[in-house]
Amino acid sequence: MADILPFHQRRATAPDREPEPLWREALGRNLRAIREEQGGRLVDVAERAGISPQYLSEMERGRKEPSSEMIAAVTGALGVDLDDLLIGIASDIRRIRGTVPAAGRRPAGPVLMAA
Question: Which residue, 90, 59, 54, is CA-closest to 72?
């Protein structure tokens, strides 16, 4: 017969800590910041990306969970590299969490490594 394993409940979030930010919200904030920094209009960027202005607006507001193809289309329309976008998103999440990356620190959880 199989052993019964204990069920560990997730730790409660500290009351003074913000909830974990959603990826789509961080993505949207960064896309909007890049577009506004460039002085681009929503309709123009959406047209270059081949999507509707409404969809781009929903992406920027964190309402849509866009596919990788949609993200690639928008970053291409903005003329930014995906790695720059990801660095901006990571910085945004760290700022919200109030954490900074620890150089040389090992991850606390499991890590998937590809050869």
Answer: 59
User: Residue 24: which residues within 8 A CB-CB, separation 6 or more?
Assistant: 59, 62, 63, 64, 65, 66
The pLDDT of residue 36: 97
Please, are residues 86 and 72 in contact by the beta-carbon 8 Å criterion?
no
CA atoms of 18 and 96, how far apart (whole Å): 7
Interatomic CA distance for residues 53 and 44, integer angstroms: 8
Q: Is the pTM of this model over 0.85?
A: no
Report d(CA 70, CA 59) in Å as an integer: 10
